[in-house]
Design brief:
Rossmann fold, binds nicotinamide-adenine-dinucleotide, alpha/beta
Length: 256
């Protein structure tokens, strides 16, 4: 697969999970990859791994809650690779224990999740669009939402509200930037083996049992299950896809 030969991609949250799997896949397909996120160690390890296999990757420590960070990261990627063709807005957190029970919610907790999962993606898309327009148009953005945006089931209310907001942002960008040749799509992953902030999950064993029963394909997903959909949507092969919401969840959403 040479779908990304000569193309460059910037991925937020690129040091682990879905972001790292997507970076590996797109680098194998020829992309120059800018890995952004926190902490730096994960980014550097994935960049070194890609570099060791003959790929091109750059680790750029970036906190998506700081607008200047994401602006600078996109500028660095553009300077290193000549342009930024694709942006994957993937960074996210999940506050399993504290993002629950709305009547008693500490609003600082609510804000924390919104700041990374919604406003972080807005900042990323803002500067991605600005860069793509400076380049003369063209480009592809993929937003990583979640199946929690498609139902009311998740107990993590700030998380699922932020992920729902991303679907609106996706539609806005698709409609208003199509005339510039810029596409935007959302991927809604289902329940993977591990979630963001996995060490903080209150009951991983029960979650696994419940999910394995509920998922028609009978297993939790992996980052490698999600990366191909992100890469496809970012690629020219998806040239007629924009504004879509692409569910990759082993069937759990339609089984409910
Ligand atoms: N794992 C799942 O079950 C699942 C399901 C649906 C959606 N998602 C979404 O997929 C995306 C990737 O999650 P994952 O499963 O790979 O987990 P992950 O924790 O491995 O990935 C999230 C990444 O975001 C980074 N990050 C956190 N805060 C950041 C900040 N302020 N600035 C920059 N980077 C930051 C983390 O360091 C991490 O590398 C997330 O948006 C998540 O909500 C995951």
């Amino acid at each position: 697969m040479t779908a990304f030969e000569g193309k460059s991609v910037l991925i937020t949250g690129g040091g682990s999970g879905i972001g790292a799997a997507t970076a590996r896949l797109m680098a194998e397909a020829g992309a120059a990859v800018a890995l952004t996120g926190i902490p730096e160690a994960g980014l550097a390890a994935v960049a070194a791994e890609i570099g060791g296999k003959g790929g091109r990757a750059l680790a750029i420590p970036t906190d998506v809650t700081i607008e200047g960070d994401i602006e600078a990261a996109i500028a660095k990627a553009a300077a290193a690779f000549g342009r930024v063709d694709c942006v994957v807005a993937n960074a996210g957190i999940q506050r399993h224990r504290t993002d629950v029970n709305l009547p008693e919610m500490d609003m600082a907790e609510w804000e924390l999740t919104q700041d990374v999962n919604l406003r972080g993606v807005v900042r990323t898309c803002k500067h991605a669009l600005a860069q793509m327009l400076r380049q003369g148009g063209g480009g592809s953005i993929v937003i990583v939402s979640s199946i929690t945006a498609l139902s009311g089931r998740s107990a993590n209310v700030s998380y699922m509200t932020a992920k729902s907001g991303l679907l609106g942002l996706n539609r806005h960008i698709a409609v208003h930037y199509a005339k510039h040749g810029i596409r935007c799509n959302a991927v809604c992953p289902g329940a993977l083996e591990q979630t963001p902030d996995w060490d903080d999950h209150p009951n991983p064993v029960r979650r696994r049992e419940m999910m394995e029963r509920a998922i028609p394909l009978g297993r939790l997903g992996t980052p490698e299950d999600i990366a191909p959909m992100i890469a496809f949507l970012a690629s020219d092969a998806a040239g007629y896809a924009t504004g879509g919401q692409f569910v990759v969840d082993g069937g759990i959403t339609v089984a409910a």
